[in-house]
Amino acid sequence: MDSYEIVVIGGGPAGLAAAIEARKNGVENILVIERDKELGGILQQCIHNGFGLHVFKEELTGPQYSERFIKELKKMGIEYKLDTMVLHIDEDRNIEAINTKDGLIQIKTEAIVLAMGCRERPRGAITIPGTRPAGIFTAGTAQRFINMEGYQVGKKVVILGSGDIGLIMARRMTLEGAKVEAVVELMPYSGGLTRNIVQCLDDFDIPLLLSHTIVDIKGRDRLEGVVVAKVDENRRPIPGSEVEYECDTLLLSVGLIPENELSNEANIEIDPITNGPIVNESMETSVSGIFACGNVVHVHDLVDNVTRESRKAGKCAAKFVKDELKEDSHTVRTIPGEGVRYIVPQEIRVENVDEDITLFMRVTDIFKDAKLVLENGDKTIKEIKKIQFAPGEMEEIKINASELKDGEIGDLKVSIQKGGK
Amino acid sequence: MYDVAIIGAGITGTFIARELSRYELDTVILEKDNDISSGATKANTGIVHAGYDAKPNTKMAYFNVKGNPMFDKICEELDVPFKRNGSLVVGFSGEDMETIEELYERGVKNGVPKLEIIDREKIKKLEPNIGKDVVGALYAPTAGIISPWELAIALAENAMDNGAELYLNNEVKDIESTDSGYRIKTNEREIKAKYVINCAGVYADEISQMVGDSSFKITPRSGQYYLLDKAAGEMINTVIFQCPRKFGKGIVVSPTAHGNIIVGPDNEVVPNKDATQTTGYRLSMIRETAQKSLEEIPFNKNITNFTGVRAEPDTGDFIIEESKVAKGFINVGGIKSPGLTSSPAIAEYVTGMVKDISGGLEEKEDFNPKRKKVIRFAELSNEEKTELIKKDPSYGRIICRCETITEGEIVDCINRNAGATTVDGVKRRTRAGFGRCQGGFCMPRVMEILARELNRDVTDIVKDGTDSYILTGETKEIENGEE
C-alpha cells in the first residue's frame, strides 16, 4: 500500500494545475496519475492556437499551454505515473490503479482531486438512423488521428454539431486537403465560440446549416453519404426538406459528457444538469476530502477557466490536508433561475471564501439585450449586461467575500432578465 | 478434396463445424464476409429460449426444447458467458392472460420444464421496476441470455483447434456436382468436397438453387434494436417479452450476457437481404412499445442501434434435410428465432445425417472439446491480476477504458484460431469499444495493436468489411508525388 497526501487523477490541464497549486500551498507528498502515455491530456492534440489569453496574456497552442504546466510540475519534482489507469476509488480515499510496470497498485491518500475530464457523445447517444459504415468519427477521435498519429481520416466531410471541436476540425480537415461540405447544427444557434465560427468556418467558406440535422446515413463498408433535413421549432425533421450530401466522412461534435464513473464508485453526488459532481466553494465534492476540477465537473469552453478552477481545487485540497477548511460554516446554495442552466459551485460555505469567489454558469438559450442578475432574496447583488448571451459561452460572476459575509446571507439566485446594453 | 464444406460461418455453420470436428473428417468453412458471425448471428437478441413459443410438432419446437439444456455444457467447454436468468411474457389485460394460458399449454406440450403463470405480486419480486399496467406473466426459469457472436467465434476457434479450416471473404458463386461430390467456386478459390452443408442464412435459398434445389425460399425480415449502457443494466433481471397479439409480438427488454440492456426487435419484411440500416420511425415505435413493459427504461443511456436481418422460410419451419435433388447436399435453412437456442441440437442432428450419408464416422482420439480459457481481466481477483501482470505486463495496460479491457486481452484475441483481424472483430471478441464511448478513445490504440500483431500497416486496418477502411492515408501526403 502506497500512501500520499494528495492524489490527482488525471494529468490534463486540470490535474496539472491542481497538483502544482497544492505543492505551492505546502503539500509535499503528491501523486498525479495519467492514463495516457504523456501528461497534458486532450490539449496535446489541440495544436491550434487561442489558449492562454487569460492566464498568460498571450496566445498559445494546446501543447504549448500544457508544456508550461508540465515543466513546472517536473521542476517541482511532483511524482507522476503515466500509462496508468485508476480502476477503483472509494469514499475512504482508497485508490486502485494499474500499469505495466507496477502491476496492481493500492494507494491510500488524505485527499483526492478528480480531474478525469470528459468524453465525447457517440452516434448512439443521439440515435442517428442509417447504416453503420466506417468513416463516422467523433471530432476528437479524428483530431487525435490527424494531429497525434499523423493520419488523415477522410476526403469529403460533413460535420454534425457546431461545438468548438467540430468547428476546429472543420478548419483542420480543410487544411489537410479535405473538402468540408457543411457543418450541420440542430439548434438555431451554434454551440461554439463566436471566434471559432469566424476563424474556422467563415474564413474557409464552409456553410453552417443551423436548425438542420442528419436523418439518414448511407454506405455499407465506408460512409457514402448523409441525408440532411431542416428541423422545426421542436427540433423535429421537416419532411420534404431532405438533401443528400455525398461524403466519406462524418464527424460528430454533439456534446461532451464529464467522465464520472469513478465519482459514482465513491458515491459522490452528481448534478443531473452538469453530469459532474456537485461541488462547493473549495471544489470539494459531496464526499469529504475528494475534490474535483475541470471538465469532469462541467464542460468548459476555455482552458484558462479550467486552470483557474483547478488551482482553486489544488489549493483547497492542500488546505484540507492541513485541516484548514471549515466544515461547519454557514452554507448557501446557488440556484439557477430563469434562463440559467446551471451554476458551479452549487454550494458556498461562506467562511471558506478568502477574498472572492467566482460563479461559473451557462445560459439556456440565446438572449439579446439582457442582463444576468445575482440576487440574495429581494436584494440584487450583481448585474452583468450584454448585447447577447449564448449557451456556447460560459458566463461568470465574481462575488467579494465581504458581500457574502454581510449579515444573514441566504441562497443566491442567478437569472436572465430583460434590459441589457 | 474435403469431406465436408460448410457454407456460412454464423451460429449454425460454426456449431456444425465444431460437432464435425469430433470426427476424422476434413472440414472447411466458407464465409463470404470478413469475420465469423457477420450476419444474423451478430444482430439478434441473444436469448436462449425456453421453448413455449413454437407450435407443437414443428422442428422449431423440437430443436428449441432439445437445444436449451445443452448450453450449460457447451458454454463451459468453450468459456462463453451464459446466464440462465429466466424469462417473462407479460400480459396487460384479461385477453392477454388468455393468450398466456395458451402459451403455457403449448409450452407444456413442447416439453418445456418449470413453466409457471405468475401474478403481479410475484412479478414485482422478480422485476421491481415492472410497468404499472402489467397484470400477470408466463415465467420460464429455463430461459437464458448469451452473447451469440462470442459463441460462434468460440465454436469456430474450437473447430479449427480440432483441425477444421476456415476461409473468410470467400463468397460462393457456383456449385457443380461431380462424380465424387461437389466443386465449389468462390470469388477467390475452387474447392472440392464430398458433402456440402448449406448454412448460408438469408442466402440459403440462393445457395440451394446452385445445385438445382428450389424447394424453399427465404424472405429477409429485419428487426431493429437499442443497446443501452451497462449503467442501466441493473434495472432488470429477466428477459421480458410482451404478450403476442394479432398485430405483432411486442418488444423484448432484456439484460445481455455482459450486463447491458437490449431493447427490440420489431419485425418488418425488407426488400434486401443486407438491409441492416436502422430507421427513425421504427426506432421510435420500439421505444414507445417497450415502455409499456417498463416505464423507466433509460433511453438516454443508449450507446448504439443496430438491425438484424432474419431468414424467414416460406415453409414456416426450419429446413434441415438432405436435398431431394442433390445427394450429399444438406440444407440447413430458415434458421430464424429460435435458431440460436436450437443450434446445438441442430448441429448434433446434422452430424448424425452426415454419419448416415457417409456410412459412419470415426471419432478423433485427440478431439479437445475445450477452448483455451479467455482471460477477462476485469473479472479476476486482485491476486490473479497481480500475478498476471507480472507474467505478462501487457495485461497492465488498459486499452478500453469503458469496459476495462487490457492490451493482453486484445493481443490474445488476435492470435487465436479464427482470431480478430478488424476493429469490430476485436470488439466482438473482447468488448473493447463496446462501452459508452463506443471506441472514441480506444480505436486508435486497437488499430495500432492489430497492425503490430498482424504485421500490417495501420492504414490497412479496417473496421469490419474488407472495404471499411478507417484512415485514408498519412497527413500531408502528396498525391502523385507532386507538391
Termini gap of chain B: 54 Å
Name the CATH homologous superfamily of the largest domain in chain A: FAD/NAD(P)-binding domain
Q: Which superfamily, in CATH terms, is the homologous superfamily of the largest domain in chain B?
A: FAD/NAD(P)-binding domain
Based on CA atoms alone, the radius of gyration of chain A comes out at 22 Å
Mean pLDDT of chain B: 95
Q: Could you name the ranges of chain A where pLDDT drops below 50 across 5 or more consecutive residues?
A: none
Please report which band the strand proportion of chain A falls in: under 5%, 5-15%, 15-25%, 25-35%, 35-45% or over 45%. 25-35%
Can you tell me the CATH class of the largest domain in chain A?
A: Alpha Beta
Number of domains of chain A: 3
Number of helices of chain B: 13
Name the helicity range of chain B: 25-40%
Described by strand count, sense and barrel closure, the largest sheet of chain A is: 7 strands, mixed
On the 0-100 scale, what is the average pLDDT of chain A? 95
> What is the CATH topology of the largest domain in chain A?
FAD/NAD(P)-binding domain
- How many E-type strands of chain B? 23
Unreliable stretches of chain B: none
Helix/strand/pairing category of chain B: alpha+beta
CATH secondary-structure class of the largest domain in chain B: Alpha Beta
Spatial shape of chain B: globular
Per the principal axes of the C-alpha atoms, what is the gross shape of chain A?
globular
For the secondary structure, the number of strands of chain A is 28
